[in-house]
């Protein structure tokens, strides 16, 4: 093993103390003082690995190992250090710490790549604080949408204010956007967040594609009334309507048992939240994902028809806001081959699988070729303090990543010299 497994373990142990909740959980909100503390620690490791480090105006932490040809496109590695509010120690952090370890090993081995290598911890991958994720990666690609800086968290703080408090300047976003063709490729290591690798008794896997996420916010409005006096058949109960829609969404996603379609309603807000007032307003989120874009679009159409029918049935008005919509994105064959060949040279025959969760790689796929390595996690649990990946598996994944990076460096040097 080329990488230093003990150093990697220590880095995980130290990082997991930042934003710690309970024995094994973490809460590191995007653009918070806690994430800033995590960045400070990761920055110190990047600098020890010989990287120049900065935080850009989108709130991304970026370490750069200069190549022999600084003007060549960058080979980018990384993931994110922000977490869910009730999250685990490995989601996102595994990709950042593995990337730092890979570059540290390159430096220790005296290897200077032809292309520069950048390790990045993308800002706000998770998306829960401002209800829209992949902020940092979309930022560097010039893909932010109108009004994003006006989004507010539960405390009323806008994204713009959070960025300024973090030391960023939204007026200088242009300075942090990567020009077209300036990124050669992107490689991300991530815990699987599912049960497949554990079921196959394999420490790592090769990702083939990321399913396309659809995020909607649904708002229903009825009419409040006294819970004791308004007859049942005359009520305009927004919560009853929401309940029917949520149950219907669950059935829509399950209609093809062989499909990997998944749907979730993760948040619901009710107004005015009194036990003896009929709910007048309900707002809830929808998360619908599938590797088959036509099937997902079909299910979305069914959901929209259901919302309209339910609103008519209960005399409700409604609004549907599209927060995120992306088609499935497939990993580059040459990067999958690099990972596969590295595994075969070690006598490993690893499974290949799709990713249901989206990752920063999803957006990177629009700018360059990308690949992903999955690491087994216990019981497939993630977005939960019980999330767990063994340090042995993480070391195997990181060592395979190191070998893959060497192959990618060689291939990029060859292809760019032709």
UniProtKB/TrEMBL annotation:
<feature type="binding site">
    <location>
        <position position="126"/>
    </location>
    <ligand>
        <name>Zn(2+) 2</name>
    </ligand>
</feature>
<dbReference type="InterPro" id="IPR011650">
    <property type="entry name" value="Peptidase_M20_dimer"/>
</dbReference>
<feature type="binding site">
    <location>
        <position position="383"/>
    </location>
    <ligand>
        <name>Zn(2+) 2</name>
    </ligand>
</feature>
<dbReference type="Pfam" id="PF01546">
    <property type="entry name" value="Peptidase_M20"/>
</dbReference>
<protein>
    <submittedName>
        <fullName>Zn-dependent hydrolase</fullName>
    </submittedName>
</protein>
<keyword id="KW-0378">Hydrolase</keyword>
<dbReference type="InterPro" id="IPR036264">
    <property type="entry name" value="Bact_exopeptidase_dim_dom"/>
</dbReference>
<feature type="binding site">
    <location>
        <position position="80"/>
    </location>
    <ligand>
        <name>Zn(2+) 1</name>
    </ligand>
</feature>
<feature type="binding site">
    <location>
        <position position="91"/>
    </location>
    <ligand>
        <name>Zn(2+) 2</name>
    </ligand>
</feature>
<feature type="domain" description="Peptidase M20 dimerisation">
    <location>
        <begin position="210"/>
        <end position="313"/>
    </location>
</feature>
<feature type="binding site">
    <location>
        <position position="91"/>
    </location>
    <ligand>
        <name>Zn(2+) 1</name>
    </ligand>
</feature>
<dbReference type="GO" id="GO:0016813">
    <property type="term" value="F:hydrolase activity, acting on carbon-nitrogen (but not peptide) bonds, in linear amidines"/>
</dbReference>
<keyword id="KW-0862">Zinc</keyword>
<keyword id="KW-0479">Metal-binding</keyword>
<feature type="binding site">
    <location>
        <position position="190"/>
    </location>
    <ligand>
        <name>Zn(2+) 1</name>
    </ligand>
</feature>
<dbReference type="GO" id="GO:0046872">
    <property type="term" value="F:metal ion binding"/>
</dbReference>
<dbReference type="Pfam" id="PF07687">
    <property type="entry name" value="M20_dimer"/>
</dbReference>
<dbReference type="InterPro" id="IPR002933">
    <property type="entry name" value="Peptidase_M20"/>
</dbReference>
<dbReference type="InterPro" id="IPR010158">
    <property type="entry name" value="Amidase_Cbmase"/>
</dbReference>
<comment type="similarity">
    <text>Belongs to the peptidase M20 family.</text>
</comment>
């Amino acid at each position: 093993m080329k990488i230093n497994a003990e150093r990697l373990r220590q880095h995980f142990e130290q990082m997991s103390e930042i934003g710690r909740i309970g024995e094994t959980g973490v809460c590191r909100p995007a653009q918070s003082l806690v994430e800033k503390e995590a960045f400070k620690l990761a920055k110190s490791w990047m600098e020890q690995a010989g990287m120049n480090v900065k935080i850009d105006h989108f709130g991304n932490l970026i370490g750069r190992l200069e190549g022999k040809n600084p003007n060549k496109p960058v080979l980018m590695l990384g993931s994110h250090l922000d977490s869910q509010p009730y999250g685990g120690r490995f989601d996102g952090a595994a990709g950042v710490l593995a990337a730092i370890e890979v570059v540290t090993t390159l430096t220790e081995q005296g290897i200077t790549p032809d292309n520069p290598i950048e390790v990045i911890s993308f800002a706000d991958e998770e998306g829960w604080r401002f209800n829209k994720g992949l902020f940092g990666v979309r930022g560097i690609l010039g893909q932010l949408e109108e009004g994003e800086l006006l989004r507010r968290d539960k405390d009323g703080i806008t994204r713009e204010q959070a960025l300024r408090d973090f030391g960023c300047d939204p007026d200088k976003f242009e300075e942090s956007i990567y020009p077209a063709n300036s990124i050669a490729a992107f490689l991300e290591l991530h815990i699987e967040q599912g049960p497949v690798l554990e079921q196959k008794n394999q420490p790592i896997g090769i990702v083939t594609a990321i399913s396309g996420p659809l995020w909607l916010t649904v708002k229903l409005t009825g009419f409040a009334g006294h819970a004791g006096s308004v007859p049942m058949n005359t009520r305009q109960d927004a919560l009853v309507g929401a309940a029917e829609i949520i149950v219907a969404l669950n059935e829509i996603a399950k209609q093809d048992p062989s499909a990997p379609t998944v749907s979730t309603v993760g948040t619901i807000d009710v107004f005015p939240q009194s036990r003896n007032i009929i709910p007048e307003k309900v707002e809830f989120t929808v998360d619908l994902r599938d590797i088959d874009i036509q099937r997902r679009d079909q299910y979305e159409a069914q959901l929209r028809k259901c919302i309209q029918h339910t609103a008519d049935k209960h005399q409700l008005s409604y609004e549907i806001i599209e927060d995120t919509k992306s088609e499935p994105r497939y990993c580059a064959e040459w990067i999958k081959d690099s990972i596969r060949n590295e595994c075969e040279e070690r006598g490993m025959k690893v499974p290949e699988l799709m990713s249901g969760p989206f990752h920063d790689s999803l957006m990177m796929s629009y700018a360059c070729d990308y690949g992903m390595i999955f690491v087994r996690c216990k019981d497939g649990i993630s977005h939960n303090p019980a999330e767990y990946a063994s340090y042995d598996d993480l070391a195997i994944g990181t060592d395979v990543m190191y070998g893959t990076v060497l192959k990618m460096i060689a291939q990029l040097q060859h292809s760019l010299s032709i």
